[in-house]
Design a protein that fits this description.
This protein is an alpha+beta fold. It contains nine helices and 18 strands.
Length: 294
């Protein structure tokens, strides 16, 4: 029996399939394949799937928009869990209840249509809400954790809610990454504003992102240290344009690594080279922002 067939035999309603291609579903455009993928339809089905995987020792990983991740090369003999079924999006006053599978673009359009402001800093960031909450996505002007009042989550056999205080949001970090808890939805706090003002703020962030490097990348690779931006440190070490195989440090923004047809091993080796050189020449230890899969 195939991996997806085994999952469906135990969870007959589960949408699942074989051979998930990481390169096709991630912005970096490299990586191998997974034996199976699954898209649960609701929290209870997800909790049951996680319980099945734990019980049968089936490896699994979560994937949202695939924009800030580096998948491994070769075969991942496990299941990639996606959140396509979690598309809820509704407002009650200034509180927006949103599912993990809702994209950033859809959330921002919904907010503007309902005169709700506060999330404009997410403009242009390739994301789904689940992944964004898990890694506390954002920019200097704000992070999604600043908006969160509560999160609906799943672990093997259980669906539950956490308040924002328990989520332990940090700089591109949260309890969800540290403890492998699936985010399936959340409540975000907005404030009322005029649509024209919301659009003005979105234009500001859109223009800021227009100068970022084009091509296959994971976005920013490293979290900015307090003393100096990661890009400035990397540039100071003369690493712009440095290449390993098909991976190179962008000449436009040194905190971006572009994939020109290389492998995940190329990207990983270049990340290691950058970290080593920056530590040796500046004493700063760079922390990776990207998440390794699985």
């Amino acid at each position: 029996m195939t991996a997806a067939g085994y999952l469906r035999a135990h969870l007959p309603r589960l949408k699942a399939g074989e051979q998930f291609d990481f390169a096709r579903h991630t912005s970096i455009g490299c990586g191998g394949t997974a034996a199976a993928w699954a898209c649960p339809s609701d929290g209870e089905e997800l909790a049951s799937l996680l319980a099945l995987c734990e019980r049968e020792r089936i490896p699994y990983c979560f994937l949202g928009a695939g924009a800030n991740v580096l998948p491994q090369d070769g075969l991942f003999d496990g299941v990639v869990i996606r959140f396509c079924g979690f598309r809820k999006l509704e407002a009650e006053g200034c509180i927006v209840r949103v599912g993990a599978g809702v994209t950033g673009g859809r959330l921002l359009r919904f907010a503007r249509e309902n005169c709700l402001a506060g999330a404009e800093f997410l403009t242009g960031i390739p994301m789904t809400v689940g992944g964004a909450v898990a890694m506390n996505a954002g920019v200097k002007e704000g992070h999604i954790g600043d908006l969160v009042s509560g999160v609906v989550c799943a672990v093997p056999g259980r669906v539950f809610s956490l308040s924002s205080e328990v989520c332990r949001f940090g700089e591109k970090d949260s309890i969800f990454l540290r403890e492998k808890i699936a985010v399936i939805g959340g409540e975000l706090k907005f404030k009322y504003s005029f649509p024209d003002e919301i659009e003005r703020r979105r234009c500001y962030f859109r223009l800021k992102r227009a100068s970022l490097p084009k091509g296959r990348s994971m976005g920013c690779v490293f979290v900015n240290p307090e003393e100096e931006s990661a890009g400035a440190l990397i540039e100071r070490c003369g690493l712009k344009g440095v290449r390993i195989g098909g991976a190179r440090v962008s000449e436009i923004h040194a905190n971006f690594i572009l994939n020109d047809g290389g492998s995940s091993a190329d990207v990983s080796a270049l990340i290691a080279l950058v970290k080593e050189r920056v530590k040796r020449e500046t004493g700063v230890v760079l922390r990776e922002e990207v998440r390794r899969l699985p």
